[in-house]
Amino acid sequence: MDKTKQSNLVIQKLVQEPTVHFFLMAVVIFVIYAISQTNRENLLEVDQREIDARVFIQEMTTGQPLNDEQRQFIASNYVEEQILVREAIALGLDNDARIHDMLAQKMRHVLSGDVIQPTADDLNNYYEENLERYRTLPLVSVNELVLNTQDELSAEVQAFLDSGSNAEMILAATAGNEAPLPNVNRIDLANIFSPEFSEQVFNAESESWVGPYTSNRGQHWLKITERSEANLPPLNEITDRVRLDWIAEEEEILLQQEVDKLWDQYTIIVANEEN
Question: What CATH architecture is 136-228?
C-alpha cells in the first residue's frame, strides 16, 4: 500500500472518531468567536476543562454518553455564557443589588462550609436547651361540612346542626358535602379560615357543629372528632430534625465569626453626599 492510501485511511479513521469531532467543533466555536472579536480587541480564554466538566456532569445526570451534537451544544453554551458575563461586566451590570445579594449568599456558604457534625452530647444538650421548639401544638381532627348556600338555613337544618346530628342526616336535608380535616392545629385552621373561627373551633365541645364560616363555596361548619394535647417528642424520635437545627445554628455562628474577621480587614468609610 502506497503512502497516499495510508494517509487517506488515517484521515478517514480520524474523521470517524467522536473525540476528534468534538475537538474540531470546539476549535470552530473558538475561532468564530475570535474572529468576531478581532475589531474589538477582546480576548476570551476558555478553559477546556470547564467544558469537559460540564459534559461529564451531564453524562452523569443522564446516565449515558453525549453525542457530538450534544457536546457541541454544551461547548457553545459555555462560550456564550462567558461572553455574556464579559459583556455584563463591561456594561457595569454586576453593580446590581440582586447580583450583589447572590454573590454575598454564595460567599456565606463558602465561609460557613467547615461546620462539623454534632456529637451525641451536643444533640442532647441542644435538645434540652430548646425543648419548647420541639413541643407540638394541640391538634384536632375535624369533620368539615360545606353547605351550598350563603342564605339563612331552614329551621330543620339549623336544628340538626344545633343538636350535633351526623353529616349524612344534614346532607339529606340540604345540598352540600363533607370532608375530614385530620390533625390540624390553631395555626392551620387560622390559615384555612380565620383566627377567630379557629379559636371558636378549638374552644368548642366535641361533637358540636361550629359555624358558619361563609365563603364563596357556601357555609362551612366544623365538628371536632378527635383531640390531641400538646406533646414533646423524645430526642430519639426527632434526632434528624435536632441535628439539622444544631448544624444551622453552628453554621450561623461560624459564618458570623468569619464575617467579623473580614470586617477587621477593611476600613469602612461612609460617604455623605448631602451638601
Answer: Roll (3.10)
